[in-house]
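Structure in, sequence out. Go:
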């Protein structure tokens, strides 16, 4: 058995004459990992979930589960379970009967149902809640019931469609930890849908960033954050300072009137680029030491840091996250290391980026 549990091959989903919700998407999901589909509303992430679950059919392309094409396999025959945004619990059934519902549909023996429901509730720390009414449960408890109902059927994949969105911030953070730990204990594949970047970064083994029906970039949270492929990813994942520049040569880039050492390579000399520096990678310093000279426009206290907005002489805004304060109107210097600079080619796709690095590694940088 291969390690890939789900494969999408050139999958398109389109309704009537509207633009494609998913546009020729291909990817693979490995078993036993926590995946997140991340992107703005309408980008196609929930459509991917529905295609995997069998709630909708692809217009073009093929979907494979454990190496077998499942385009025509009905939803109730697929080894997946879905946890919905509203949990879709039955209000007239207590906790035990909500979790047992799928097992009763399968006509499982009562003794076996008792064992499996007890095990599922234990996994989500709800032992002793069997007779509790759903209306008497908190939001976090209801979510755990929904997860218990999903895992009791022993699926190979659990699909989670923004299940934390209705929770308050504190409970949402707690449930992020619980979900991640639960996935590790179960050892099965979780595919989680969210538009919350911090949630995706905190929970995932791998992230797929989507926009307008296409996967813009996939990778680990660190890959996505530190090496964004294009402006959309850099802007959507965390906060970024993005300015236009020009590549001088490998390890040297020009922007805002200066030339700066960087760690990027494989681009052509004089090629127009976009330069990304994260706010936390900018250090407030003296004008003499600063690589950039800016004037402070505003400052907000965010608890663990100050969020400082500055402008350089070219009119570029620079956002700085720092434990140091700076008075509005002050001229200050900003210092950054070469590793803080990330250079992006205009409009580069993930495949283009991979090919560029591979070509450079083999000593052949192709002209674009």
């Amino acid at each position: 058995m291969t390690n890939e549990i789900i494969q999408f091959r050139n999958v398109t989903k389109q309704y009537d004459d509207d633009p494609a919700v998913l546009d020729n998407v291909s990817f693979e999901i490995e078993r036993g990992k926590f995946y997140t589909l991340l992107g703005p509303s309408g980008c196609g992430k929930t459509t991917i979930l529905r295609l995997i679950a069998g709630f909708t059919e692809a217009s073009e392309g093929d979907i494979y589960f454990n190496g077998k094409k499942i385009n025509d396999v009905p939803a109730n025959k697929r080894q997946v379970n879905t946890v919905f945004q509203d949990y879709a619990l039955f209000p007239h059934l207590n906790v035990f009967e909500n979790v047992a519902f799928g097992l009763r549909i399968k006509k499982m023996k009562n003794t076996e149902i008792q064992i499996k429901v007890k095990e599922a509730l234990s996994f989500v720390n709800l032992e002793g809640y069997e007779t509790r009414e759903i209306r008497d449960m908190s939001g976090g408890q209801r979510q755990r019931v929904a997860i218990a109902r999903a895992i009791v059927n022993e699926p190979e994949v659990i699909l989670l469609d923004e299940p934390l969105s209705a929770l308050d911030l504190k409970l949402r953070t707690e449930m992020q930890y619980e979900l991640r730990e639960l996935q590790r204990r179960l050892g099965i594949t979780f595919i989680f849908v969210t538009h919350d970047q911090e949630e995706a970064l905190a929970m995932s083994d791998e992230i797929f960033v989507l926009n307008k029906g296409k996967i813009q970039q996939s990778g680990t949270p660190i890959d996505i954050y530190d090496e964004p492929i294009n402006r959309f990813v850099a802007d959507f994942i965390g906060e970024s300072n993005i300015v236009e520049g020009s590549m001088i040569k490998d390890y040297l880039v020009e922007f805002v009137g200066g030339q700066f050492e960087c760690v990027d390579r494989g681009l052509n000399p004089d090629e127009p680029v976009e330069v990304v520096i994260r706010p936390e990678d900018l250090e407030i310093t003296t004008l003499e030491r600063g690589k950039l000279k800016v004037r402070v426009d505003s400052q907000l206290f965010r608890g663990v840091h100050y969020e400082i907005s500055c402008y350089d002489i070219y009119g570029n805004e620079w956002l700085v996250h720092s434990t140091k304060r700076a008075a509005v109107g002050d001229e200050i210097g900003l210092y950054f290391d070469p590793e803080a600079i990330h250079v992006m080619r205009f409009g580069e796709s993930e495949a283009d980026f991979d090919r560029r690095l591979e070509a450079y590694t083999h000593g052949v940088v192709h002209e674009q």
